[in-house]
Specification:
Elements: E1 2-5, H1 9-15, E2 25-27, E3 56-59, H2 68-85, E4 91-95, E5 106-108, H3 119-131, E6 136-142, E7 144-146, H4 152-157, E8 171-173, H5 174-186, E9 193-196, H6 204-213, H7 215-218, E10 242-244, H8 247-252, H9 261-264
Parallel strand pairs: 1-2, 1-3, 3-4, 4-6, 5-10, 6-9, 7-8
Helix pairs in contact: 1-5, 2-3
Amino acid sequence: MIGLLGLGFLGQHIWLRPGLPPGSWGAGHRSEAGIPVLPFDWGQPPSWAALPEQGALVLSIPPLSQDPEAETQRLEHWGRWMNQHRPGLKRLVYISSTGVYPNQPGDYSEDTPAEPDGLRGQMRLASELALAPFFDLKVIRPAAIYGPGRGIPARIKAGQPIPSDSGPIYRIHVDDLAQIALLAAIETNFPPLVLAADQGPASSLAVAEWLLAQPTWAGRGLSLNLEEGYLARKGYGSHPERRLTPKRLQEMGYRYLFPTYQEGLQDEL
């Protein structure tokens, strides 16, 4: 069985994937999609005893601290507890981020050393390194996650601003990421590290303009809100010469459910 530590956008989509083993469960602050929820809180050590004895874990809870050193110490404490009290929960799939790679020109893959230039990436890398000694760790570094009710279509419908300076954004549909996480939890020979990104990067503005150009959107009376001063990543976008290549998924022969955002947004049309 699989335990979902985190029941947000991704956790709920993993729950809905075909192939989830019987007896699987979740832990988090939301209980939707009929998920059996355990009273486990990652930040509260007394609750850790609620975890079952066996299975694989998928961890999608973001770091609880904004201090890499403090988060490292917290994770090491949890890892030691798990090794002592839950040795049967050895495989851990950790949902990290492509933010561990710098926003600089270059080709980045699983073979590239992680050198984050922002705090969010530093926190994710610190978490990867802290968890590795205690688990059979499978790290997934996803690009920007989008899917139903989340992303550019939702922003347009809500009249929210679209950044005009985002640069080319790599994305991954939530159903693809859920499928990859499920494979990581189940497959014996799944690689220790995969980068999860489709190969159709496009700016936020390009995606918004593509949507509004579709016949089913043309008559809705929707328009772009390019609010002055609303910028991507607090004032800078993704560098146009920053290229992400998911080599391990290619080697596995993984076939994307949604190879680009055009396929991934068909349900919005």
